[in-house]
Amino acid sequence: MKMSSFFAVVKLTCRSAWRSHIFQLLLVVLVLCIFILPNTLISDGTLKGEIQLLLQYSFGFIFGILAISSVWLVCSEVCSDVENGKLHMLTVKPISRAKILLAKFTGVVLIHLILLFISSVVIYIFVMAKMSDRNWFFGESKLKTEEQLAEHQAVRSQIFIAKRKYAPEMPDFNELAQQEFQVRMEEAKK
Q1: Structure confidence by residue, pLDDT tens digits, 123-156
Q2: Half-sphere exposure of residue 11, counting CA atoms within 13 Å on the CB side?
Q3: For 35-73, how does the pLDDT look when each residue is reduced to its tens digit (9 = 90+)?
Q4: Angle between helices 47-84 and 2-19 (to 10 degrees)
Q5: pLDDT score recorded for residue 185
C-alpha cells in the first residue's frame, strides 16, 4: 500500500513532465544535438577523428541538456504542484513529504534515463554507420585504398574490441612457504 502511493506520484510526475512546454523545448534541443550537431562539425578528416568528435561533442551536449532539464523539471514540478493545489492534496494523504519529493525526483530521473538510453542508441547507430565499410545505398565497399583499410582496422581495434588486462599467474604462496619451511627445518636439524 505504501509503495503504491510512491509509484502513483512517480507516474503523475512523469505525465506532468511530458506535458511541460519547457521540457518539450529541451527535448527538441536534445534531438538537434543528436542529429544535427555531429553532421555540422568538421573533424580532422580521419575516421578516428570523426568518431571522437561524434562521441565527445554529442555526449557532452546531451549530458549538459539533460542536467539542465532535470534541475528545471524538478523545480518546476514542485512549483506547479504548489500553484495547482496538487501538493496540498498530496500532503493530506498518508504519504510523507520526503516520499513525495523523492517520488517526484524519481519520476524526473526515470524520464531522463530513458532519454539518455535513446540518445545513446542513436549515437551508437551513427558510430556503426561511420565504421561500416560498405556503402549503404549501393552495397559497394567505401574503402578504396590500403591506407583507408588500415585506418579502419586500427579504429576497430582501438574502439570496438575490449582488451583484457594482462595479469601474470600468481604463484601458490602457501606451497612456496611450505617448501621454505621444510628447507629451514632441514638446516635447523643439521
Answers
A1: 888 888 877 755 544 455 665 677 777 777 777 7
A2: 6
A3: 787 777 777 777 777 788 888 888 888 888 888 888 888
A4: 110
A5: 93
- Residue type for position 163: K
Q: How far is CA 54 from CA 3, 31, 166, 175, in A?
A: 41, 14, 30, 53
Only one residue has cell 511541460, namely 20
| Whole-number Å distance between alpha carbons of 57 and 33 | 9
pTM (2 d.p.): 0.68
Question: Which distant-in-sequence residues (6+ apart) come within 8 Å of 5 by Cβ?
Answer: 93, 94, 95, 99
CA-to-CA distance for 63 and 142, rounded, in angstroms?
33
- Assign 3-class secondary structure to 126-178: HHHHHHCCECCCCCCECCCCHHHHHHHHHHHHHHCCCCCCCCCCCCCHHHHHH
Q: Report yes or no: 4 and 93 within 8 Å, Cβ to Cβ.
A: no
Amino acid making up residue 5 = S
103 membership: H or E segment, kind and range? helix 97-131
